[in-house]
Amino acid sequence: MLFLEGMEEHYLIMAGLGFATIIMAWLPSFSKKLKISSPILLLLIGFGLFLIGLPLGWPDPLWNDEGLMYYSEAVVIISLMGAGLKIGANYDLKSWRKPLLLVFVTMPICMLSAYFLGQYFLLLSVPSSLLLAAVLAPTDPVLAAEVQLDDPMEEQEHEDNVRFTLTAEAGLNDGIAFPFSYLAVMVAQAGSWAAFNFTEWFWDKLLLKIVIGVVIGLFIGWMIGLIMDRLHKYMGVKTFVGFLSLSLTFMTYGVSEALHGYGFLAVFFAGFALRYYEKVDQNYKKKLGEFITEMEHLLMVVYIILFGGSIMNGMLTLTDWKGILFAFLFVLVIRPVAGLIGLAGVKEGFKSKLAVSFFGIRGIGSIFYLSWAFVTFDYFEYKNELYAITAYIILISIVLHGLTAPTAIEYFRKKSQKTQEEASN
């Protein structure tokens, strides 16, 4: 400890962050060997760095709302670009049925369950119950990376059935959940359901902004693919820099938000449209995906380490036993049951549907919506409780899904390979 006290604070911070990020070079391999996901290991590192007193500006126990909003926003849009780039032309319209069912059937069931439990079990106000339902709506594209598609060049429609569904769901519902965060804010601002302007919310926040976001994303992704193709074909200019995916992420998000669209949806569909533009070199698409994935991992490291510090600093003590019970119910019962209901009409094995339903991972997307709502409207009740309940759900999700996801995904991969081998013989 004398050695630590003798060093200047910023050197300690640089050393600590350097240590935490450099281990990402080996974490994926360790995760596969240990059959647990890397967020669990990062969480333990966060606990350790907090205990030795590394001066990282740990949340005490909550973050600053505005700073948290901007950071989580960046992490989510980078991850959504990665999700879009992972989905290629191997997936036809029929393949999209399951993720669409999860978005338009499972997600509303989860939201209604969270809202009514917030009202009548947690005894929250109407706006706070709506906000709780909204922030728990999206599955997370960041922490769920290990149950999503990997190399888009090696994708196989049947082999990656479970992972495709989870990837597409995360890409879609992170943007479609935004209208319901607006709903919570607008009801809170109005003061009651009776004073709330439903027409404005429905036509503007629900329909118009979704359509604009999707259209802008598809157009920008297609246009960038077209430009790259034409530059190479007519001018001999070949694009092969990975950071284009990062530039495309921020440009698409900014343009969409400026033009009254949902940037989350725009970013996902921009990545999807670029990946789908088959005239662009396949190796370059792989490089784009690898670059954005590494950026996502870097930001995820910092977030989870600070999240671990906030837990050690008492964030989980800001709610009572009801909040804890609700968190377990949401992860272990509500999402899996809602998922099975949504997929009830799908002709597929029960194990596959159960896996998709169970791995509804919650994470940084929920944190963004929560901080966004508090920045947008500063008078929400039960702020500490909402942060703590969300933190419990994220922690349970990291640990539970982190311990089970690698084994489950490997099981379905081997099962699919065996089926394909039997079919070819």
General description of the model:
There is one protein chain. The protein is mainly α. It has one domain: Up-down Bundle (Na+/H+ antiporter like fold), CATH 1.20.1530.20. 73% of the residues lie in helices and 0% in strands. It contains 17 helices and no strands. The protein is globular, with a radius of gyration of 21 Å. The protein starts with a helix and ends with a helix. 47% of the residues are buried. The mean pLDDT is 84. GO terms for molecular function: antiporter activity. Pfam families: Na_H_Exchanger. One of its GO terms (biological process) is proton transmembrane transport. InterPro entries: Cation/H_exchanger_TM.
Tally of helical runs: 17
Uncertain regions spanning at least 5 consecutive residues: none
Mean pLDDT reading: 84
- CATH architecture term: Up-down Bundle
Number of strands: 0
**Main sheet specs:** none
Structural class, by secondary structure, is: mainly alpha
Instruction: Provide the CATH top-level class.
Output: Mainly Alpha
The CATH topology comes to Na+/H+ antiporter like fold
- How many angstroms separate the termini? 65 Å
Radius of gyration: 21 Å
| Residues in β-strands, percent | under 5%
Write a compact overview of the structure shown.
With 425 residues, the protein is mainly alpha-helical. The chain is built from 17 helices and no strands. It has a single domain (37-424), classed as Na+/H+ antiporter like fold.
